[in-house]
Write a structure and sequence with these properties.
By secondary structure, the chain is α+β, with helices and mostly antiparallel strands. It has helices at about 5-15, 65-80, 80-85, 100-105, 115-125, 130-145, 155-165, 165-175, 185-195, 200-210, 225-240, 245-250, 290-300, and strands at about 25, 40-45, 50-55, 60, 150, 195-200, 255-260, 265-270, 275-280, 280. It folds into two domains: about 5-60 and about 200-300, DD-peptidase/beta-lactamase superfamily (Beta-lactamase); about 65-195, Beta-lactamase (3-Layer(aba) Sandwich). Helix content is about 45%, strand content about 10%. A hairpin with a 4-residue loop joins strand 7 and strand 8 (about 265-270). Bound molecules: glutamic acid (GLU). Glutamic acid binds near residues 96, 114, 260 and 261.
């Protein structure tokens, strides 16, 4: 097995200068302004050691990675009631697909496609207004990362809101089936703002550490969510975390992980580490091209795939 510090530095050194970097998302105008030249990586081990390289401390738009934290928030508030609104199957369709919703009576396949995440936001907003709902999600992220400086990038949130016609269509469609209950505009405002949370790789890896520890808060030793719910979230990340390339990611990397169109990926090696990578250039399916490569190399080098026999 490779030495973790050396491996992280080696991967970053090679990928930072790589010519082929994928295409930066441009359907949200504010995201198109980010340079494709970035590469950052941070690993926080289950026992709290940190390894970082490249642009590990530069903030970026976490986009769909926020869907993991929103699911944690919704699970804490509503428990298994989440699963009466949202399914647990990979979609095999694009993250913003609408066709599946019509075929399946407005019930989103999983909480990590846009429709599912919008339904999760609606659930969090039940019984409170949208400002309190987004405040709760942000507070959750800050607490998990132990970092109150984490915030919403308001220009990204605005950019999403003024161009989010497809998400508005998904939300209205679900509202017509009663899958979401609240006012569509308020629910969408929570969704757009949660996607616009900005974090660095280091902050993100710290925030994900409890998922490598069976749901236990490394600071207090107390559960944030139960071990069973943590296993389920990790299972969903593995099966649904990379849009319609989730199978390919499991094949190549073998770790629960969630990507976002900002070019970030949060990956969990249960019992071992929380890993965040960021490179804004995306593959055709919307996943960070170099981020995926970095995780493939890290998982292979450390023997961390969940499908490996235990090597310790
Ligand atoms: N805010 C983005 C959207 O809804 C999230 C996309 C993503 O990262 O998958 O279009």
């Amino acid at each position: 097995m490779a030495d973790l510090a050396t491996l992280v530095t080696d991967i970053a050194d090679r990928l930072m200068t790589r010519a082929e970097r994928g295409r930066v998302a441009d359907y949200i105008p504010e995201l198109a302004k980010v340079s494709p030249g970035h590469f950052g990586m941070a690993v926080v081990t289950a026992d709290g050691r940190e390894f970082a390289a490249g642009d590990a401390d530069t903030g970026f738009s976490i986009q769909s990675i926020s869907k993991v934290f929103a699911l944690v928030e919704a699970s804490c508030r509503h428990g298994d009631a989440v699963w009466s609104m949202v399914g647990r199957e990979p979609s095999g369709s694009a993250f913003n697909s609408i066709i599946q919703l019509e075929l399946e009576a407005g019930r989103p396949r999983n909480p990590f496609i846009n429709a599912g995440a919008i339904a999760v936001c609606d659930l969090i907003a039940q019984g409170q207004d949208s400002a309190d709902a987004i405040a709760a999600i942000l507070a959750r992220v800050r607490a998990l990362a132990d970092d109150d400086s984490i915030d919403i990038d308001t220009s990204v949130a605005w950019s999403e809101a003024v161009t989010g016609f497809r998400n508005a269509a998904l939300a209205n469609y679900m509202r017509s089936f009663g899958v979401i209950a609240g006012p569509v505009d308020a629910t969408l405002s929570v969704y757009f703002q949660q996607c616009a949370i900005a974090m660095s790789c280091r902050q993100l890896a710290r925030a994900g550490r409890f998922l490598s520890l069976g749901g236990v808060d490394p600071g207090t030793g107390l559960p944030i969510i139960s071990a069973e719910r943590t296993r389920r979230i990790n299972a969903l990340m593995l099966t649904c975390g990379h849009y319609d390339a989730s199978g390919d990611f499991a094949f190549r990397v073998g770790l629960p992980a969630k990507s976002g169109v900002g070019g970030g990926i949060l990956a969990i090696a249960p019992g071992r580490a929380s890993i965040a990578v960021w490179s804004p250039g995306l593959s055709a399916q919307g996943n960070s091209l170099l981020g995926t490569l970095a995780l493939e190399e890290l998982s292979q080098g450390m023997g961390w795939s969940v499908f490996n026999p235990d090597v310790d």
